[in-house]
Amino acid sequence: MNKPKSFVRNLIKSFISYTNKEDLEKIPAEEQKQFPFEILVAATKNFHHTQKLGEGGFGPVYKGKLDDGRQIAVKKLSCSSAQGKKEFQNEVKLLACLQHKNVVNLLGYCVHGAEKLLVYEYVVNESIDKILFKSGKQEVLNWKPRFDIIMGVAKGLLYLHEDAPFCIIHRDIKGSNILLDDRWVPKIADFGMARLYPENETHVNTHIAGTNGYMAPEYCMHGHLSVKADVFSFGVVVLELISGQKNSRFNQDPESQNLLAWAYKLYKNGQSLDIMDPTLVSSAVPDQIAMCIQLGLLCTQYDPQLRPDMCRVVVILSRKPTTLEEPEGPEYPSFRYSNHKPTASSSSTTGTSGDLNSHSFGSTINTKSATATASTSGLNIPIYDRHGKRLVQD
User: Fold this and answer.
1) Which pTM was predicted?
2) I need a labelling partner for 71 at 20 to 30 A (CA). Which of 42, 170, 306, 379 fits?
3) Which residue in the list 23, 67, 172, 181 is annotated as catalytic?
4) Average pLDDT score over residue span 29-42
5) Is 172 annotated in the active site?
6) Where is this region: Disordered (predicted)?
7) Residue numbers belonging to the annotated binding site
């Protein structure tokens, strides 16, 4: 057995303790495609700067073209990035087992000396985040493609939670990790922080890593992780798609500390459609948009037990607008900077972050991710950076 194949198989072997051994053993060897390093060098024009799609904490991502005409995106691990190495291993282990139209497709890998690379399908359009908040081109997404994106992401999460070989919690669902193909079909990307979810467990306690503005309160405060954390993040994305506003940078209403509180206030006043992005006016389907707003509020409720699972979300989106239960009011903790220092019980360190400013592959690492010891004491432990300031935004 050659060294590169041995490397990946050892990764799979080490992963078995976290999931069902029989499931992994069913994966045919041919699904682990090894790309010769020379092929990737040629495809990316020797990783030329003109081919670079972006730069993240793990290293750069390059666009390439294979001899058969297929376009690819090559994630190249930075040799000095410990976080990148962990994410590389995570993505190899997880994405090798996943096949779904709404999950980015891992074509293969390459290990060449110290070089470690992942090869993905090239996703031609930009991420949701870039289109809505950075490009000034949000009008290209009228209501129909936005609704289809909401549905596609919901189906992708349902697959990860219930239909994949094992339950996977993504942990970093956000606009920059949702890529759009040439037909605006969404593809969930960046599984570097994903976690397997043990069967018969209500939640797991884990180190905290994610993007402020998308993390569920029970996770970012206590380290309690369940599939409902992804549901919360999905709800934030739904409200961002409808409003054109970014939750972590919200400044639309001085009386509301974030997008979620503003949406809930307008909803209770019977004015929920007032959060709608003005560019949607000509294409709006009011009843459908109102239903999606209510669904987004249900998904972002403070109590995770009140949030619907992704199976119910898909069912709701598949039907004509219908009557839903009333969402509870948000009690979201404030993530504004504070001068308070961490307490002894909140030992925390700052995780590595990167901002992948890509054209088409999307922001696979765009997190100010905090890594903190998970608390099981039930105390409300805020997350601080290394200077003793609370995290405020991504």
Assistant:
1) 0.74
2) 170
3) 172
4) 79
5) yes
6) 323-360
7) 177, 190
